[in-house]
Amino acid sequence: MANIKSSKKRILTAARNTEKNVAFKSSIKTAVKKALELGKGKDKKALAEAVSKVYQLCDKAVVKGILHKNTAARKKSRLTIALNKLAAKA
């Protein structure tokens, strides 16, 4: 444990920020799973909204510094590829 007062504060701040970042990343994963589930169905409007939500969350994470821009691009690309494969099967 740190002895300096400012170091103790930084430890608390880092823990708080880590918790927020983990929650935000989890929301991205949930949105991706929801989009993939909708990709199996017939509702194109709901699918478009879900994909838009994933893109929005990824872009927001990049701006906030939670995800690297290439990581966000990779997630969006993999989602699009997976949805295209589902559409091809149907």
Strand content: under 5%
For the record, the count of structural domains works out to: 1
Mean pLDDT: 96
- Rounded to the nearest angstrom, the radius of gyration is 18 Å
> Low-confidence stretches at least 5 residues in length (pLDDT < 50)?
none
For the record, the CATH architecture stands as Up-down Bundle
Number of helices: 3
Helix content: over 70%
Q: Please identify which CATH superfamily we are dealing with.
A: Ribosomal protein S20
CATH fold topology:
Methane Monooxygenase Hydroxylase, Chain G, domain 1
Largest sheet: number of strands, sense, barrel closure:
none
Q: What is the count of β-strands?
A: 0
- The CATH class is identified as Mainly Alpha
Task: Describe this protein's structure.
By secondary structure, this protein is mainly alpha-helical. The chain has a single domain (5-89), classed as Methane Monooxygenase Hydroxylase, Chain G, domain 1. It has helices at residues 5-39, 44-64, 69-89. The longest helix is centred in the N-terminal third of the chain and has 35 residues, at 5-39. The protein is elongated and about 60 Å long. The mean pLDDT is 96.
Secondary-structure map with pairings?
Layout: H1 5-39, H2 44-64, H3 69-89
Put the structure in a nutshell.
This protein has three helices and no strands.
Tag the structure with descriptive keywords:
90 residues, mainly alpha
